[in-house]
Design a protein that fits this description.
The structure is a homotetramer of 372-residue chains. Chain A is of the alpha/beta class and 372 residues long. Chain A has 14 helices and ten strands. Chain A is globular. In chain A, 59% of the residues are buried. Chains A and C meet through loops of A and loops of C.
Chain lengths: 372, 372, 372, 372
């Protein structure tokens, strides 16, 4: 896990003094993070003058240079300002839509200046409380127009930058458009430059909809679209909790880590989580270290799973292919189909076979518990 | 709503005597349905001889001819038989995967013989209880191989048939692959013949994941992929309830009907619901009539929404475009972007504008309640 | 609905200028509300001096006198200040627990001074993110000690005041103690003065757990414990949405109103909801009026339900008692039991009876839609 | 864990041959279970003659004697037969209500004959799909009448038997009455013989409503009402999954085991779970052993948590009481209250204190993962 990092945003809140970006960089360096991400306004206040902006960026670059941290990803805050209360790219107000493009282009410039290669889009207000107020088809078209425009902008500027779309089902809006990673994967295939665009799945966001996050990440990986990932944890069917990675469900965290490691995912492992409000800054460091420790422990567990003789023997048995179906496998031919349609299957025998999944799952549980 | 229909399957159960397919056709005709759909084994038992099969099909065709009902859609039961206990196309057992293709090809033949133009795929066992037992990437590849094979089969046979993929997040498996309509829309773009393949969203299935169904249907419609739809109702975050259309949430049902009608959806309105277990056959008829009545009432409400002067005036105001953004709209140009980046926005003014969505939503509620 | 009212708190937020308490009273009077409720710090800032506090209270009383609004209920803010980040009465810190009692007693004095007869307890931070940090049995005992202490305080002061406990399953804490109205009803029976203590169920809070709110309110009513109610709306399994009453599910809102009206509930109908963030102050008024209008419309629908001949005939049929079970009904006797144990029931006949619930529910739906 | 056991019911299903009760006893003995529970009709078919019933009971007793298994708990099946399609004790049909009492009394006799000391009530059909069909207050009164009647029956017969009420939020009904353990705890306080009645919480049932199960069990324990417990596992917001204990969430399972063991719970640990449908009988045994193994592993982890020096030092620090609040603690007095009301608290200091819960939770996670 050589690309771990933390977003600047989470590490502040009403119970703790707000850290400056430079302080955040130093805190992250202190706990051993690889990088730091930010929303434009985490770094530069929305009402900063150009001179202030330039000073902030200089100081931030110096802090990066001092600590060795990098900025793998940047993003735009299109949700905090009241201007975005009904969405940014999907707002009914053409001025708001134009302002959202304006703000995002400036934020892209900032991100690229700081070295970001991935630009995340989380449409924090792209949704609705009542479908009376916006035609959902119009909303899709507006989203597409904005993404196509911004792809053109990146190409026009010659930036080396890819986009990663982040889904969320609800909160802060009643319902958000493109509610899951699946919807985002479908949406991006309809863009003018789909090759520039992938996804940034977040554990908490799929869990809010009670979905198996590992399956969604697998779909993105298999499609070559896993450009970035946000790691945290969250109970199903709850408000956006953004807990420490692994804090809720160790088993699902394990399958996720295993998927990423087995498939050589080489993007960022971004811990987009928040320390409990009970913590002071020592607690925030405990939290940040905990995210990374749990990831590394689970990574080692995945290696052990792959090396465990009993587990691997079971997996071989489960996937056994005695070869009788070989005539029907491979590319489609009419002859093959005729044979397959005429084949007589021993249905009861297929149904009677025991699959040993309880034993396999229990072995996995015991490996997780460290007693295997 | 000239294409309403009912699937044969739901109208039976342990509290009522099982009807024969012919009896179901007559019951549906009796309540005014347009068509009847079926799983292969709803019509022909899985262990029927060829002679029995042919007799059943003859009787069924006669019942269709007698009543005027049509068969717009057919599908395969790939979930009831114990052979499919670990999936059909995604099973770890190559014999089961081959048997699933075999069974589906025969079922496609049957569906085409009876006039079906749409073939639905709901992978009732394509999922897992533990991700230790199956690599989710392998599962995706197996699903794709099966769909590509069956597309080839349809092309090879010269059938006039399209596929509609139906998602479900869980139940009967712990987690199902391609959990939502969004995931299915993404998956189908990776197929060899995506033009033959669309989706069959079901209200209850998206509601199980607490998702806004209208948004998912809008995405499918906008992508030209809404090939079929399953109408019923369901509380969020529950077991698969399959209640009468509109029985849980009239407001979300209204926005769905409005979307379908406003956009000229011309496919089936398939009521894939079940009468409460408290009902005898008169109750089943009440239930079937209720589905259709509620759809028609909401269709009329949608027309009234579109004609209501107060509502329409609000919508015009909400979407007002005073034209100042015109220089930045339309196709991307570098000059346009430079101007937009330099434009000065009155952010506080954008944020201060009241949008009247409470009033609009309350007008909608009162229209639904019949007091507007 | 002669006791409708609004809490002072919701009507402000980052998208709108914060109103003073006096302005809120005037806004509520403007839309026709009956009363106004408040948290102590909605009225008096947590850091106000005694002189400031007295001036605020004088102004507020004058506004009440000017408008005729009353204060039926008051409550304590035990969640906003960082001191309460790990709970108030259940905090692990004995100073915080003492401060929570101190703050509540002063707030009770304020509420009584303004005429409140009901004092609500919502323990906004009484919960946990990890059960490692607090023994749940200790938490229960601390909650009980605090409630017993405060009951003694009210008795000691001779106040005419009852307590109403409000449950919430989660948010802002990962899990809240006494997660539902059911848990609160059980908890209060273990107090030293249970006769002083009832519940304040809130639609949104039970819906967050996907529970039927009407059933919970019925249990409270039947036990004589429905001392107050918070009306709003919310999708199941989501963050705390606090939407306008009836904004999500008209059918469940209808059954709730019917329950309250049929059973002569004479406490407050408190609309504890928030206008969408899209609204300006005119929108806030639309929202407030909408809550009250929808309640009144549903109240009239309930009267129509009770007067509808077709519906009432069905209900009589459904509940028919032909009298054969009379020998077994009433108080327990050994003879009755012997007879009942020996009675031979026609089980298939009991199971075969159709109950017409689909028809009844469809009639209800059509009554709601105004087409019946 | 000296009282582990399995219910007869789960170990069968359409994918496996149904075992006879005697075979189930032998299978449970084989995997080392302590006891076996049953619904009346798991043992004696609903249509058995008296002679058949007596033979079955004789054979079952012999199997118990042969294996040393005991029957700690019994219960009634009031949900499978169509007669109960609209409830048993809450049915609108007085004949069904009488039949439910009749059936339960006979089943209690059977349970007592086989040695059961606890009688569980799970009202599998006590609920509704539409609140139009049943007044929820009537349903509560019917439930209470039935429970009071059956308490009298047990007292009248002189049986040594207690009742344990089991809650479930939904499924198979749309909504079930007394939806959670909290509602059941409240309900039982309204009975004529509350001392005879406790609860039987089930992990899966509280998790269906997304509730913290450990908190519900703590409330029951603290009230002296934890008469029985059903252990299994389940994702939040899903159909009733009844997975192997610990199969979904190891952390919540750990806190549950710790609560039971720390508080000396001496009732049954009943594993009311089902093996995956993928399993043959060897898999069913793996599953049963897995439930017990995971419980024992977590029990040992709880002991280590209680002995871990770093964790215990943190807990002492978290709960530190420097004594300054002592004057305000203990029984209520007017003088104490006056002093407490006048005490000046250093609110910012209370809020600024870091609580180290992230560190404590991470230590817990690492203890669970076996790396601590």
């Amino acid at each position: 896990m050589d690309r771990r990092q933390h977003r600047a945003r989470p590490i502040r809140g009403p119970v703790r003094e707000v850290l400056t970006p430079v302080e955040i960089v130093r805190l992250l360096a202190d706990v051993g993070a690889y990088g730091v991400n930010f929303h434009d306004n985490d770094l530069v206040p929305i009402d900063a003058t150009l001179a202030q902006r330039n000073q902030i960026v200089r100081d931030f670059k110096q802090a990066l240079a001092d600590t060795g941290l990098v900025v793998p990803m940047a993003t735009t805050n299109l949700f905090s300002d009241p201007a975005f209360k009904d969405g940014a790219f999907t707002s009914n107000d053409p001025q708001v839509r134009a302002y959202a493009l304006h703000k995002t282009m400036h934020a892209i410039d900032l991100g690229v200046e700081l070295g970001a290669k991935i630009y995340v889009f989380w449409g924090g207000r792209e949704g609705t409380e009542t479908d009376a107020a916006k035609d959902p088809i119009t909303a899709i078209k507006r989203s597409r127009d904005a993404m196509n425009f911004l792809c053109e902008y990146v190409l026009d500027q010659g930036y080396d930058l890819k986009f990663a779309l982040e889904a969320k089902p609800n909160e802060p809006r009643g319902d958000m458009y493109n509610a899951t990673t699946g919807h985002m994967l479908a949406f991006l295939t309809t863009l003018a430059h789909p090759e520039m665009v992938g996804v940034n799945p977040e554990v908490a966001h799929e869990h809010m909809a009670g979905l198996n996050f590992t399956h969604a990440v697998a779909q993105a990986l298999e499609a070559g679209k896993l450009f970035h990932i946000d790691l945290n944890d969250q109970a199903f069917g709850r408000y956006d909790q953004d807990f420490r990675f692994g804090a809720v469900n160790l088993k699902s965290a394990f399958f996720l880590v295993k998927l990423l490691e087995d498939n050589g995912y080489d993007g960022s492992r971004h811990f987009d989580a928040h320390a409990y409000r009970t913590e002071d800054y020592e607690g925030v460091k405990d939290f940040a270290r905990g995210c990374m420790r749990t990831y590394l422990i689970l990574k080692e567990k995945a290696e052990r799973f792959n090396a465990d003789q009993e587990i691997q023997a079971l997996l071989i048995e489960i996937n056994a292919d005695e070869g009788t179906m070989a005539p029907y496998q491979g590319a489609y031919t009419s002859a093959k189909v005729a044979a397959l349609k005429g084949h007589s299957f021993d249905r009861p025998a297929l149904g009677a076979r025991g699959l040993s999944y309880e034993r396999l799952d229990q072995l996995t549980v015991e490996l997780l518990l460290g007693v295997q």
